[in-house]
Structures are given as structure tokens and as C-alpha cells.
Amino acid sequence: MPKRGVRQPFRLSFEWRSGIKGTHACYDLGEAEAKRDELFANAEMRDSSVTVTILNRDTNEVFGPFVSPEDSAMTVTAAAPKVSATLGLAGKMAHPLTSPGSVQSLCGKVVSKFLKDDEAKDYPRCTACGELASKESGTVATKTATEPKPAQLKADVLDILAGLENISDAAKAESMINSAMEKASAIKSAQMRIPLVKKIEAAADKAKASQAPAKRVVEGTVVADIAGKDEIIAAGITKIHEAVELGRKMGDKAMDLARIQLGARLRAERKGLPDLEGQSGPVKALMAEMYTKARNGVPLTDVTTLEAHESLKKAVSNRMQDVTVEFLRSLDADKLREHFPLLTIPTNIESPEAFIRAEYKEVGITLPEMTRAERAKLDRAKDKAELPAATDASTDAPSSAVSPAVQEVKHASELADKLAARIQAKKYDEKEREALKAEVQEALTKFSLVFAALA
After folding, report:
1. At how many degrees (to 10) do helices 150-163 and 170-185 cross?
2. What count of other Cβ atoms lies within 10 Å of the Cβ of residue 115?
3. What's the DSSP call for residue 61?
4. Cα-flanking dihedrals φ and ψ of residue 52, to 5°?
5. pTM given for the model
6. Would you place residue 230 in the very low, low, confident or very high pLDDT band (cuts 50, 70, 90)?
């Protein structure tokens, strides 16, 4: 969403090989470069090509055109800046180029503009480029067009994984896994890299299991006959309890983070009132910076940790409704004056909550009235009212005290069946699948708590 009141002076124009064209408005050159790299990654995935040009509408300065490569080195057309340039700007640093007029630096970055010698002195030099340039006594070590394309790297990884099926030697299997992981790590596109890393990890687990096969139970063997049955069950119960406790703690931390986010919203203004919806640019920028810095240092190949960050982010978003309702219900005269200093507060106000809700409604904002738990309870009551009444009094049914709870669990199970059928029938992209996984994980945690309470 564009930030209200903030101009977007940079315009990125693109054209696919098929002739499809489009534009993106951007706040700065960094955002435009990120969108360009995104388009190039998509072109690699689709074995297509796209031409990108970036225009600064304030200065009429043109960057590019950039053309997604047939190989890993990007090219620039004759309309690009002076081809004799040996330095280019990427981010806020000057980078030596792989060759005069190339748009790729020695360290692998794509430059946004070429620099003349007198311009280059205004920018710090990239140290990584310097190290690469001095590795072999004056011979420039560069990332050249001989590097394999991402599509080729992906194909190599899949070939290695296919070959693992026939490998029985543990050392050779480990070497192949390491080779596959090295090739996958060289792919810059997260959309292509992360699924490959998951496949490699799964193949590694499978290979490890095949090298040291576990003793199998003969079909028809009863549980009591499994050697070490009691120890297995005891170890499993311990891990179940630990997982349930971690789930409860994660929920508590998500609620704490939601309250921190509410504090940020109360300090930002939108439509003359504190931004309780979190839609203002400053609030979004603050939260994005917080989550980005929290992920600093996590390797791109550490998919499990990255997924945990996304799950927590989703859990916090889900709890914003709860903390907002909690805040509104806690309002009194003192809190009104503290958090809403621009409003004229009536004396002897009967309901601070109703007063604030009315103020927001005046500017077209409807605040949530119930927590998620309250909303779910109301929905269950409506569903229950629509259930047909039992007609057979002789049916062996649970007692009246338990029956509603059993019906609710059955209803949840039916919804899960319907959801599973929809997921199997529809293809979701990576982003949608990650969001669904986060929601399902949260639901599983809650059901684990219910099961533990019944144990």
C-alpha cells in the first residue's frame, strides 16, 4: 500500500519477452532495484527474459535498460550510460565492474548507474570487490558469465537427489548431499532455493535412515512385543509435554509482542486519531524494521528458523484484535487524557469505550468489538443452533454436560476435512502455503493443550 502523503518519484517500467508490459511506482532507488531483482528471479524461474528501466521523475535520470540474462551476467543495451565506465553504484558504495560497461560488480551485485572518476570519490569503495581483485597478484577474480544459471543449478541438484536412490555407501551419499546443498545455496532466488533446500534435507534424512536401518516390527506384532516399548512411550510423552509448553509460551510471547505493537500504534496518528488499525506508514515501517533486524544473522538455508519467524509474525497479527479490544475495555478518564490528548473529553463520561468507538466511527473506522475467542464462541453457538435435534432417545449418547463439547470437536474435525479437500484441489503459491502452515501450526498447538487437559 502506498504511504499517505509520501511521493513515489521512481518509476520502474518492464516488458516481458512475450510483449506484456507494466510499471511500478517506488519510493527510492533501493526499492526499484529490489523490484528489478524480483522480476529477474521470476524470469529465471520461467526461463523467460524481461527488460527493466528505472526513471527518477524528479531529475529525469534514467537507469538501464537492464535485461534479464540468458546467463548469470546481466547485460545492458546501447541506451545505457557510457560503456567505458569501470565503476558503478550499488546501494551506497562504489564497485569495480567485471569489465568496462558491465552492470555486474566483482562481488556479484548489479549496479544502478555507472560512475565517472570524479563521481566515484564521493562514495566508499566495496571491500569485497577489492579482496576479489587482489586475490591473484593483479589478476581480477570475477563472477563471470561462466557461472551456471539458476535453472541449471536447480537441475543439477535434482539430478544429484535422483542419483542418491542407488547409493549405498554412506561417505559417497554425504558427499553428494553436500554438493547438492552447495549448488542450492548458490541460487539467489529464495523462491527457487528454499524448496530445493527442503528436498535436500529430506533426502539427507532418508539416506541416513537407509544406511542404518532400524529393526522393524513384523506385521501383526502387538504393541507389547516391541522391544523398549515403555522407554519409547516415556520419551515420547516427555517431548509432547515440552512441545505443549513451548506452544503455550509462544502464545504468551506473541501476546506480549502484540501489546508492544499496540504501543507503537498509539504513538502514530491517522485521520486525527491514534492509529489503532496500524495502517499508517510510520507504524508499518517500524514493525518491518523490527522483524527484519530480528532475522539478522539467520542464514538463508536455515529454513526452520525463518519459518518460525514467519509463524510468530502471523501469531502477533492474529492477536492484535485481542489486545485492541482489551485496551478499549480498559479505558478510563485518565487513559483517555493520556492517549487521546487532542480530543475534548466530556465530564462525567459514562462509557469511555463507547465514546472512543464513536470518535473512530466518525472518521470511517470501525474498531473490533470482540476478541477472537468471543467471536469463535458466538460462531459456535450459531452453528449449534443450526444443528438438527436428536430424535432417538435410546441412542447411546454422552451426558448433556459433555455432548456440546463433543459436537464442537466433531464440527472442527469436519471443517478440517473440508479444508484438506480444498488444499488438495487447489495449487497454492509459496507465500500462501507458508501462511496456511502458520495457521495450522497454531491450531495444532491449541488442540495439544486441549488434549493435555483431558489426559
Report:
1. 160
2. 21
3. E
4. -125, 135
5. 0.38
6. confident
What is the identity of the amino acid at 317? S
Give the list of residues 6+ apart from residue 396 with CB closer than 8 angstroms, or none: none
Exposure class string for 407-428: b at 16+ Cβ within 10 A, else e = eeeeeeeeeeeeeeeeeeeeee
| DSSP per-residue string spanning 431-453 | HHHHHHHHHHHHHHHHHHHHHHH
Radius of gyration over alpha carbons of the chain, in Å?
A: 29
* Helix runs in 7-95, H state only: 29-45
DSSP-based three-state secondary structure for 341: coil
Residue 10's CB is within 10 A of a number of other CB atoms, namely 23
Chain centroid to CA 96: 33
Max CA separation in the chain (angstroms): 94
Instruction: For 69, list phi and psi in degrees, rounded to 5.
Output: -80, 155
3-state class of 145 per DSSP?
coil
Specify the pairing of strand 269-270 against strand 273-274. Answer: antiparallel
Q: For residue 16, what pLDDT is reported?
A: 80
Distance of CA 231 to the CA centre of its chain: 39
Q: Is the per-residue pLDDT at 381 higher than 60?
A: yes
Mean predicted confidence (pLDDT) in 113-139: 69
CB 44 within 8 A of CB 149: yes
The answer for residues whose C-beta is within 8 angstroms of residue 397's C-beta and 6 or more apart is 390, 403
Contact 338, 327 (CB under 8 A): no
pLDDT in tens, 28-68: 888 888 888 888 887 777 777 888 888 888 887 888 788 87
Whole-Å CA distances, 8 to 14, 29, 230, 372: 17, 10, 65, 37
Strands 10-16 and 50-56: antiparallel
Quick: pLDDT tens for 57-110: 888 788 878 887 643 333 333 333 334 567 877 777 787 877 776 666 776 666
- pLDDT at position 77, please? 36
Q: Which candidate, 192, 191, 171, places its Cα nearest to that of 183?
A: 192
> What's the CA angle centered on 336, arms 330 and 339, to 5 degrees?
100
Do the Cβ atoms of 172 and 66 come closer than 8 Å?
Answer: no
Torsion of CA 148, 150, 155, 159, to 10 degrees: 70
Nearest to 103 by CA among 128, 58, 72: 72
Contact 216, 207 (CB under 8 A): no
